[in-house]
Amino acid sequence: MTVSTRLRSLPDRLTGTIVARQPTPEPVTVTVARVVRPDQQNAFERWAAEVQEVAAGFPGHLGSSLLRPGPGSDEYHLVYRFRDDESLAAWERSPERREALDRVHQLVEDERVARAVGLQTFFAVPARPGPAWRSWLLTVAVVLLFTSTFQLLVVPFVGDWPWPARLLLSAAYVVTALRLSMPRLSRWLGPWLQGSRRR
Residue 3 CA to chain centroid, in angstroms? Predict the structure, then answer.
């Protein structure tokens, strides 16, 4: 998914001229789902470890993880994050990545790619996630934890602020905390989030 942001023209305070404000780069998460041949899973895991090590050396790389298949599945998910589109493009155009892709084709039967930008990167979940209620439950639990913490630790110090200011501070705190914690939590809880759907 590609997200574009319109430049905003604002007057310069000193000269009164119109200047363009560059949009703030947003992190990009890419998830590649591959159905691996049953007799090639060990080779694929070695390949994935090598690719993650190579990608980690590129500027703007924020991390990666390999989500292994659940019971009755041969589908792996390789998730990696970059600081912005430019950093991701440098990796995707690199000869190192092309060479790695040439080697993996003989190990897999199918491949799908999903891409998320900005707030969508709260979850580092695969392109075909598990039951939606699990992601919903995790989100509710984390929001409840952060809002409760805010009420207990911060509100006593800002209780006399106007309510719009308190509300803004609360929203900024919760969104920032979610943005920092959800990718890591979703990686740790990946097997549970990917739990098989009942048919």
Answer: 15
Please tell me the distance from the alpha carbon of residue 3 to that of residue 91, in angstroms, as a whole number: 19
Tokens, residue 156: 């006593």
Q: For 86-116, write each residue's pLDDT tens digit.
A: 999 999 999 999 999 999 989 998 888 877 6
**Residue 20, phi then psi, degrees to nearest 5:** -95, 130
Q: Which tokens belong to 101? A: 């892709």
Distance CA 69, CA 191 (A): 8
Q: Summarize pLDDT for 132-157 with one digit per residue, the tens.
A: 677 778 888 888 888 888 888 888 88
Question: What is d(CA 118, CA 23) in angstroms, rounded to the nearest whole number?
Answer: 12
> pTM for the whole thing?
0.51
14 three-class SS: coil
**64-94 CB burial, b ≥16 within 10 A, e <16:** bbbbebeeeebbbbbbbbbebbebbeebeee
What the block records as the tokens of 87 is 């950093």
Cα→Cα distances 152→113, 172, 181, Å: 42, 16, 20
How far is 120 from 141, CA to CA, in rounded Å?
18
